[in-house]
Amino acid sequence: MPATFSASTCISNPTGGPFNIYLNSDYTSTPFSSATFVQITTCPYVIVVPTGTTSLGFKDTSSNFCFQTTIQDNDICSDCNLGLSNYSSSTISKLYCGVLTGSCQFSDYLISWYGPNDTTTLSFQSGSGSFLASGVYSHPFSTEPTSIPRESGVYTPVITKIKLSGITFSNTGGTNTVLFDGNCLPTTNILPLTCNVVTNPDINSIYFSAFTNYLSFDSNTQGIAQPVSTTYQISASTKYIVWNFIGENFVDRIKLEFSGSSYGTNKIGLDDFLVGDNLPGSNFSASTYPKSADTANNFIKYTCLTGLTVNNNDNIIINITPATSKTNWKLYMSCLDSYNCNDCLNTQNYKIVGSSITGTTTSCNENTFRIKISGCSFPDSSSDYIDYYLGSNSIVSSNVFTCASFSPNLLDFTTQKLYFTSDSCSIYGGPSLSRDCSNPLLPNVTCCTTGSTPTIYKKTFLTDGSGRGVFSFTGSSTFISTYYNSIRNAFLGLTPYNSSWSASTNPNDISYYRYYFLRLPGSLTTSDCGDGATFLDVNLHHTSPYITGTTISGVTTLYYLNITANTISSSVSFTPCQIDCTSNISSVVNAINNNSTGTTNGGYGIERTFNNGVYYSNPLYNYNYFFSGGTSRPTWDIDGYFVTPDWSFNTYPFSGNPSTIIPSLSGTVCNYNLTGKYNPIYNSYYRQQYKYAYKIQLTNPSNAGDFDILASPITNFSYSGSPSTPLYELAYRYSGGNVTYSSSTYIIG
After folding, report:
1. 181: number of CA atoms within 13 Å, CB side?
2. Cα–Cα distances in Å, from 707 out to 373, 422, 699, 735, 736?
3. What's the whole-number mean pLDDT along residues 125-136?
4. HEC assignment per residue over 360-414
5. What is the rounded distance in angstroms from the CA atom of residue 486 to the CA atom of residue 503?
6. How far apart are CA 18 and CA 59, in angstroms?
7. What is the pLDDT of residues 459-484, one digit of tens each?
8. Reported confidence tier of residue 101, pLDDT bands at 50, 70, 90
9. Chain-centre distance of CA 494, in angstroms?
10. By the 8 A CB rule, do 150 and 190 touch?
11. Residue 145: strand pairing partners
């Protein structure tokens, strides 16, 4: 039988019919086939013809009217030898493949991926060229940073569209397309993540080395962010999944579900969190879905499986949904068969090393102490708490390790200066008035904005010999009015910049030394308003003059704002015993002047144009002011504890829509929630597991060298009197140049 191929064509405006069809338009030959008017005008009209046929002739049998059309073989899979570069038939947790390859010339294509384990359910699409659209991954994804996390199973790729020499081939047909069979590519089997196969690239990092597995997505290298789902296969002995999610600025949603053989096809919800820095706050209520973790840093969670029936080859399904097309997230994970609850944090005592207690008295009757506290070394590889939770989450750690003798740099801890009534100076910050980036999940929070008019940021310098810088902004009226209004309100001390310490124009008044942080976009990257976006903060004194106006650029009227960054000098003086006053006012003056006269980048030298019109909707987002007054600081508390939040160590499985908790499946780690100081926070709570609570206090107003060290007894990780004011007893006394009392309960060595 001669070889054949399927050809398709679209014919419009024929008349009459029926039609005889001739191969290669040879009307003298016997008709190859025939068709009705309806058949040939149904687009596309598909006909199977012998290989070598280049055209078809159509003859109207009622009027002898003839016309012809050219055709070509649509078996481009074999004719063009289509395939994928860097393609593997089996991978772990991610899909790896490069670009579509072949002997024909093309750059535009769309691939539909069906699965997992299903040739009819569309999982996602990928492509290149003119077929890229929202929701389509851009090729290639052939390296670890650019590969795509997917749920485990077999995936079948089908070429949906491809453009060859200007002709679009489609596996579904359609107007102005040629029908073809897109089943050109082999399947791939994506294997699940497992507890014993390491995929974590940061195995040498002190913060992340303990984790076994790793997933990530970066829209800068992987294109438009899409929801991803991947599988973590566990065993019957798995009791905990510990994970560390870094959402950066833009909020991403992470949801973990349990799929187990004991529960049929039902998936049980385990955890559901929004994580990112542009949330309005955190909400860890057990009955809230999703919960909110307002942080750009490490969010550590133990997912406890002890309330579930777990069998070999059961799965944890990890679903991550990005908030926007500009996002960057990282996920580290491990599964644990057990958890060491009796590590050094729980078992060791923390006492003051007596030989380390020193005090230095100054001429201004101040006393500075140095004290070392014994205890647990860090890191402790036997501790799951330290390796996973504390090692990655230094924000929640406390003074337990600060004073422990584990690092040469932290052998001693220097207290604040203690003194009786004296004058001192400090620098205070106003409230944070804006967030860095917008969040579509929270439409009322918009801080980073783009537009159709480019925004131009420049810095020049006055030629009057002062060396003062002039910051200039050019763009749309909306952009300029936004910056103008923010600066005007701040310099006039209007809401939200008003406070009891509004700025003065008199340099002899300490309220004169107040300045504002002007936030500017920092780099010409694709992430000006997304994760990874950088910014510059310029310090402006409130006396800096500013003007606005219009300028002509071609046929377009643009608006400008120029701010002359004033420099200042200190006109107030302090005595040597006015604590920290001279040094703090110098730091204020330097912060203002360096930003004005400096020529380096980092906030002092800028000249850049953003074609996407990026700017901050509240550019003066914070302020600092100088404060002086009489204070008394005769005591100082030293507390050491580790933190066990409910939201990190407890798990409340859920099901349904809306979701409801399944109490019988709940679990906790080490019963951490039963001891320590209870602290309601974020519609949940955390426990401070105290290891020590000491207080140093001066006892003699005429001699700052006389002091006591008091201690509050620790029972079940709580200080005496918890949760209110600690109850102290004497642990150590220094008086008249000698140690007059030292308790072996609290003092060693």
Report:
1. 10
2. 18, 18, 5, 7, 10
3. 86
4. EECCCCCEEEEECECCCCCCCCCCHHHHHHHHHCCCCCCHHHHCCCCCHHHCCEE
5. 16
6. 8
7. 999 999 899 999 999 999 999 999 99
8. very high
9. 33
10. yes
11. none
Are 517 and 620 in contact by the 8 Å Cβ rule? The answer is yes
Q: How far apart are CA 322 and CA 338, in angstroms?
A: 32
pLDDT in tens, 80-99: 899 999 888 888 888 889 99
Tokens 């960054």 correspond to what residue?
565
Least confident among 279-293, 361-375, 595-609, 714-728: 595-609
Q: Phi, psi (5° rounding) for residue 477?
A: -65, -35
By the 8 A CB rule, do 381 and 388 touch?
A: no
Nearest Cα neighbor of 306 from 700, 664, 9, 734 is 664
Tokens matching residue 146: 């650019």
Q: pLDDT digits over 307-344, tens only?
A: 999 999 999 999 999 876 678 889 999 999 998 887 77
3-state secondary structure 177-220: EEECCCCCCCCEEEECEECCCCCCCCCCCCCCCCCCEEEEEEHH
Measured at the CA of 515, the angle between CA 626 and CA 543, to 5 degrees, comes to 115
To which H or E segment does residue 553 belong?
strand 546-553
pLDDT class for 8, splitting at 50, 70, 90?
low
Vertex 332 angle, CA 329 and 334, to 5°: 155
Q: Which two tokens stand for residue 57?
A: 């002739």
**Can you give the pLDDT at residue 355?**
86
Residues 6+ apart with CB under 8 A from 132: 138
Determine which of 174-183, 389-398, 736-745 has the lowest per-residue pLDDT on average.
Answer: 389-398
Q: What is the pTM of this model?
A: 0.70
What is the spatial distance between Cα 290 and Cα 283, in angstroms, rounded to a whole number? 9
Distance CA(692)–CA(498), nearest Å, equals 41
CB 331 within 8 A of CB 322: no
Cα gap 466→564, rounded to integer Å? 11
- Measured CA to CA in angstroms, residue 734 lies from 601, 708, 739 at distances of 52, 6, 4
Q: Position of tokens 């860890």?
A: 284
**C-alpha to C-alpha distances, 353 to 51, 59, 318, 733, nearest whole angstrom:** 93, 106, 48, 14
The torsion angles phi and psi of 67, rounded to 5 degrees, stand at -150, 165
CA distance 231 to 194: 9
Helix (H) or strand (E) holding 111: strand 108-114
242 backbone φψ class: left, alpha, beta (φ>0; ψ -120 to 50): beta
Pairing of strands 228-234, 352-353: unpaired
Using only C-alpha atoms, what is the Rg of the chain? 35
